[in-house]
Design brief:
40% helix; disordered N terminus; Aldehyde Dehydrogenase, Chain A, domain 1; 424 residues; alpha/beta; 7-stranded parallel β-sheet; Aldehyde Dehydrogenase, Chain A, domain 2
Length: 424
């Protein structure tokens, strides 16, 4: 806990004090140059690497506690850190440091007939609250993205990762402080009291935006209770449609990767749609089942392999985050589009096809944040999009959509330069 933060503060007072400290630090960030912010992030990356032993020891405590509490395999996978994953976290910080600073970028400009020169310029949003579960990498990804875009951060991680989050936060802050950035630019909520989440959601005028990262119940609560603007998605019910012209080997490889590479991420395929005229449907189904995936199919999908179980009505609207997949056989593109429109959460949808015209129709007509042709939905990730990292996938239609990285963490202001003009 920050030495200036009394332990006895109630949640509302705690959030108000942390918020005030964060807003002061944000003003410091606003004065920091591109080079200063980049240097601070590089130092944070080095600090994380140097703290590997302590961070992994802290993570081992969380894993042991999670196993004792009966966390499922998918949740434990999200929680687990090892040397490679930790190196990836540090890599992401350094990649963000190398990205162009969005602050100050001119979006557009114009001159009015009266001589006024107008421009729209990117500026930080301010103090951003991040409420998240399980994934300790969010501690660092969110901190790095917010700092690079000139925002202060107030982090509230889940109790499952409390030791990992504290160790990662301490390493990150040690790095940025060494380069003159105040520690309050990246604060971690010092309590796991659930009332602190409610205090954050009610902190209008203190916190400028809330980003929830977690399960459906968390996001629903945030969206229902927040008095602060929210950037979020509820579910990642991602579809892959195998068209009749799809190359069988490509279709099989994409389906397997989209589901089984990592089942617990929001970009994992949750529903597979197979065209009735696709000739290798049984092979695709068998490959998934042989890889350990449970298939739940409609009447026609159940005929593809005797191991396919009968799907319920709820399966088409379920984000499994596990080695479970719903499968439907459809009669052509129009039926696939209709199924996606009924059941998609607006996250990521993909088509596998050798017909360019069909691919373009799919890309144009599917209304999701990310739409792909001939690629695995597991590419739905800010790092894979060249954004360095992401703070989340936004499935709404306002402000930001898809992987939210540096640009999505800025707003803009109008700059007007005159020479003494008066409005008649």
């Amino acid at each position: 806990m920050n030495a200036q933060t009394p332990v006895a503060l109630n949640p509302a007072e705690l959030v108000a004090q942390l918020g005030a400290q964060g807003r002061d630090a944000q003003r410091h960030l606003a004065r920091s140059t591109d080079a200063e912010k980049a240097a601070a992030l590089r130092a944070a990356g080095r600090s994380i690497r140097a703290s590997e032993a302590g961070i992994l020891a802290a993570n081992a405590l969380d894993i042991a506690q999670g196993e004792a509490n009966g966390l499922g395999a998918a949740m434990l996978d999200r929680l687990r850190l090892d040397a490679n994953r930790l190196a990836g976290i540090a890599d992401a910080v350094e990649q963000i440091a190398a990205l162009p600073d969005p602050v100050g970028a001119v979006i557009d400009s114009a001159s009015r007939p009266n001589g006024l020169a107008l421009s729209r310029v990117r500026v930080p949003i301010g103090l951003i609250g991040i409420i998240y579960e399980s994934r300790p990498n969010v501690t660092v990804d969110a901190a790095a993205l917010c700092l690079r875009s000139g925002n202060a951060t107030l982090l509230r991680g889940g109790s499952e990762a409390v030791n990992s989050n504290r160790a990662l936060h301490a390493a990150f802050v040690a790095g940025i402080e060494a380069k003159g950035i105040p520690a309050a630019a990246v604060q971690l909520m010092p309590t796991q009291d659930r009332a602190a989440v409610g205090a954050m959601l009610a902190a209008a005028g203190v916190i400028d935006m809330i980003v929830p990262r977690g399960g459906k119940s968390l996001v629903e609560r945030v969206q229902a209770d927040a008095r602060v603007p929210v950037l979020a998605h509820l579910d990642g019910i991602c579809h892959t449609y195998i068209h009749s012209t799809a190359d069988p080997d490509m279709a099989q490889a994409i389906a397997l990767n989209a589901k089984m590479r990592r089942t617990g991420i929001c970009g994992a395929m949750e529903t597979l749609l197979i065209d009735a005229r696709f000739g290798a449907a049984s092979q695709v189904a068998a490959t998934l089942i042989d890889a350990g995936c449970e298939l739940r199919g409609d009447a026609r999908a159940s005929l593809l392999d005797p191991r396919v179980k009968q799907a319920s009505a709820e399966d088409w609207d379920t984000e499994y985050l596990d080695a479970v997949l719903s499968v439907a056989v459809v009669d052509g593109l129009d039926e696939a589009l209709a199924h996606i429109a009924r059941h998609s959460s607006g996250h990521t949808e993909a088509i596998v096809t050798q017909d360019d015209a069909i691919a373009e129709r799919f890309l144009a007509e599917v209304d999701s944040a990310i739409v792909m042709a001939n690629a695995s939905s597991q590419f739905a990730d800010g790092g894979e999009f060249g954004l360095g990292a992401e703070i989340g996938i936004a499935t709404g239609r306002l402000h930001a959509r898809g992987p939210v990285a540096l640009e999505g963490l800025t707003t803009y202001k109008w700059l007007v330069r005159g020479t003494g003009q008066l409005r008649p």
